[in-house]
């Protein structure tokens, strides 16, 4: 009994102590609630590690994936793996990227980007001549070291390496995770995969912001056309990239920022839309020039080398309309003068779903005219514009996102095309979580051209359409 009584006594003490503790917690909760219970949970929207207490020195990692579903009306004569196809449905990855960058000290900045582009069932774009390409798509896009001359000031940053720091226009170095439209105007990436590596070049540069002026100037060491992995162009009366010689390329971009200053952390990249978070209105002018970059042979023994001279002027607007509701607008209008030498013309199509085109259907004897391609680059003049409207915040209820419809127009007058070339896009973004999670539906209407010889100007044959669904995830 004694043992039993001791057990009862200990049990009673434990029960009493538990009751007293519970009463104390209850009393504490009712009279002075814990601070954390009234604070909303804040989700981090970045992968960032601070190297010092203030966070001025840091390392940051980002990941981007853009998956595309395409339904395309192909250009006449297009084939897919040897079979004629008028229409295609394809699935692919437009861009898959990883970035690592950081301010390592008051003066030292590092930027790296690794990833792949245009990966569909044809494994397109990187090296069309390779027998097996599925595992060689990913590569370093950028590898840059930068020195910040003035501590905590962006007056002058000097850098070098493989970089997209570029001239011509803001869309020559776009931040692809933040673009408003389905895709950027690729013609502004003027030498893409011809004498550069997916718009990146080995360069030394200076960039900065002084007052309202944002500037960048660079000297680039272009790659020979022989190393781009495609069949070499043939000499003829129409200009091509030179197969002999090697000259440096000079480029620059200057933007006058009337209101808010744009982000200036990562080298060269320009935000597509701030979704109303900034009030931005810029005027810009840019150029790219290279001596003897192009060549033509008008007649046997008559070889002429020509300079490449490209320049543009443009305006960019991105600002809120009503901060309380979250509505905003985005608009861009630019004029581009593109001189690649006499009658230069090159086709291109993003995530092209066709593999070839019947020889009898080739416009101007040019290659790469199948599928969704159109004359994207050429000697002449281009007007490009876009407009988008961001609807009110939480259009579908709290946490369910909003919509941003847009229109996109590219009008080109090229020496080697007989009429004005017009490419039109209309689309809508469903911004589930801003740019971090969004779905975009886009319809593009483009021209195709009649078969012709290599010297005759291309004549319009009709128009084709493409419907694309994109799902973007970014952190």
UniProtKB/TrEMBL annotation:
Question: Is the Signal keyword given for this protein?
Answer: yes
Signal peptide, first to last residue: 1-22
Keyword Signal listed = yes
Which UniProt key words apply to this protein? Signal
Q: What is this protein called?
A: Porin
Q: Which organism is it from?
A: Spirosoma agri
């Amino acid at each position: 009994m004694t043992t039993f009584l001791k057990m009862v006594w200990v049990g009673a003490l434990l029960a009493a102590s538990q009751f007293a503790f519970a009463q104390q917690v209850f009393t504490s909760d009712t009279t002075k609630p814990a601070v954390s219970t009234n604070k909303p949970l804040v989700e981090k929207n970045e992968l960032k590690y601070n190297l010092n207490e203030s966070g001025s020195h840091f390392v940051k990692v980002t990941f981007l994936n853009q998956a595309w579903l395409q339904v395309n009306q192909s250009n006449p004569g297009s084939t897919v793996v040897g079979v004629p196809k008028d229409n295609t449905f394809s699935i692919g990855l437009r861009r898959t990227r990883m970035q690592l960058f950081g301010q390592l000290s008051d003066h030292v900045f590092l930027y790296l980007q690794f990833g792949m582009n245009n990966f569909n069932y044809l494994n397109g774009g990187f090296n069309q001549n390779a027998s097996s390409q599925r595992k060689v798509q990913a590569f370093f896009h950028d590898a840059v070291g930068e020195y910040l001359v003035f501590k905590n000031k962006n007056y002058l940053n000097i850098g070098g390496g493989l970089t997209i720091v570029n001239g011509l226009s803001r869309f020559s170095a776009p931040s692809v995770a933040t673009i408003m439209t389905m895709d950027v105007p690729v013609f502004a990436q003027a030498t893409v995969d011809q004498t550069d590596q997916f718009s990146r070049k080995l360069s030394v540069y200076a960039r900065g912001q002084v007052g309202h002026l944002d500037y960048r100037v660079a000297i680039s060491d272009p790659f020979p056309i022989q190393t781009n992995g495609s069949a070499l162009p043939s000499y003829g009366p129409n200009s091509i990239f030179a197969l002999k010689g090697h000259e440096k390329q000079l480029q620059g971009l200057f933007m006058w920022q009337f209101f808010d200053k744009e982000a200036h952390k990562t080298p060269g990249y320009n935000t597509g839309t701030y979704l109303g978070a900034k009030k931005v209105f810029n005027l810009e002018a840019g150029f790219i020039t290279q001596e003897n970059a192009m060549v033509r042979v008008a007649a046997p023994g008559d070889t002429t080398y020509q300079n490449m001279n490209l320049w543009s002027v443009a305006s960019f607007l991105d600002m809120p309309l009503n901060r309380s509701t979250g509505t905003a607008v985005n608009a861009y209008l630019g004029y581009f003068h593109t001189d690649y030498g006499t009658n230069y013309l090159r086709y291109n199509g993003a995530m092209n779903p066709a593999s070839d085109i019947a020889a009898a259907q080739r416009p101007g004897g040019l290659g790469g005219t199948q599928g969704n391609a159109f004359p994207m680059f050429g000697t002449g003049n281009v007007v490009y514009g876009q407009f988008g409207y961001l609807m009110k915040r939480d259009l579908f209820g709290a946490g369910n996102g909003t919509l941003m419809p847009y229109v996109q127009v590219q009008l080109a007058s090229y020496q080697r095309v007989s009429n004005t070339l017009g490419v039109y896009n209309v689309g809508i973004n469903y911004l589930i979580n801003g740019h971090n999670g969004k779905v975009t539906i886009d319809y593009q209407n483009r021209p195709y051209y009649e078969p012709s010889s290599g010297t005759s100007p291309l004549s319009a044959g009709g128009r084709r359409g493409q419907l694309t669904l994109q799902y973007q995830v970014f952190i």
